[in-house]
Write a structure and sequence with these properties.
This protein is of the alpha/beta class. Helices cover 34% and strands 10% of the residues. It is built from ten helices and five strands. It has a five-stranded mixed β-sheet with strand order 2-1-3-4-5. The termini are far apart.
């Protein structure tokens, strides 16, 4: 943490950046912090409560951040994948951001509780994660933590849903989507939802009904998940932000598995690696259109 604070203070003092986006103590655990002076770098905190994917502040839908000036963003490995997606899809330029990589051992499932990271307390998204050190960064801080063994990951939860019959899976997702209130918190928190006008907001023609009922909710949730296929970074901020508690990570992870198995592709922290929707191979399987 000392290394992170000193680096942030130096970058601000030298004028390399105008703001460092990291985490600081808040009323309920850590919160995103925008540090604009070297002295304020002392408020930066990084531990297992740092659940927010700060790459979302690079999203062009947040012009307020750009108006501050050159940003430095602290990213864990999964956050760096989101930054790479924005670079890959020409939403930001590499020279317009400084990425401070933080080595990570996982985050807490309940970030409001400051407790040791164990198999019982680790977030499901971190159980299956093999990335502990971001490679897409200008600076790298922290020590490599020991991995936490055990715990139930998102893959295990997806396997449970896959084991259900088609009718039971349909019943499961129908019941989950019925609880959607169409607040769009999932869209707002996602670092790679950057359309200037979302398809869900279009009314001429109206592709997705805006009312929170079964038909409109199904269309919204499935459409958004398909837009993330092969792009989702697995940060699961959408699920954490959902006030209805819909397990969106299961839907996103299932599509990740499908894309990986059919096309050998997954979200990468290398901006030069094309997303599956942006690449084409002559031997791509396409039996679904035959």
């Amino acid at each position: 943490m000392r290394e992170m604070r000193d680096l942030a203070a130096r970058l601000l003092a030298e004028g390399t950046v105008k703001v460092v986006i990291g985490w600081a103590e808040g009323p309920r655990g850590l919160r995103p912090a925008f540090v604009t002076s070297p002295a304020d770098a002392e408020q930066l905190v990084f531990d297992a409560r740092a659940v927010h994917n700060l790459a979302t502040y690079l999203n062009p839908r947040r012009p307020q951040v750009r108006r501050i000036g050159m940003p430095a963003v602290i990213v864990m490995a999964c956050d760096a994948i989101a930054a790479a997606a924005l670079l890959r899809e020409s939403q930001i330029k590499r020279e317009d951001v400084v990425l401070i990589g933080a080595r990570c051992g996982g985050v807490l499932a309940d970030p409001e509780r400051n407790e040791p990271l164990t198999a019982e307390t680790i977030a499901p998204r971190c159980v299956d994660c093999t990335r502990r050190e971001p490679t897409l960064c200008d600076h790298l801080v922290g020590e490599a933590p020991a991995p936490v063994a055990g715990g139930k990951g998102v893959d295990a939860r997806v396997a449970e849903i896959d084991a259900l019959s088609p009718a039971d899976r349909w019943a499961f997702w129908t019941a989950e989507f019925e609880r959607c209130i169409r607040c769009y918190a999932c869209r707002q928190v996602c670092p790679i939802c950057f359309c200037e006008r979302c398809v869900a907001d279009k009314s001429a023609p109206q592709w997705i009904e805006s009312s929170p009922h079964a038909r409109g909710n199904l269309a919204w949730q499935v459409t958004r998940a398909l837009h993330q296929a092969g792009r989702c970074t697995g940060c699961n901020e959408c699920e954490r932000a959902c006030p209805a508690g819909i397990p969106l990570s299961l839907l996103n992870r299932k599509l990740h598995q499908v894309v990986a198995s059919r096309f050998g592709a997954s979200a990468s922290d290398d901006p030069a690696t094309p997303a599956p929707v942006g690449g084409y191979e002559l031997d791509d399987p396409q039996e679904f259109i035959l």
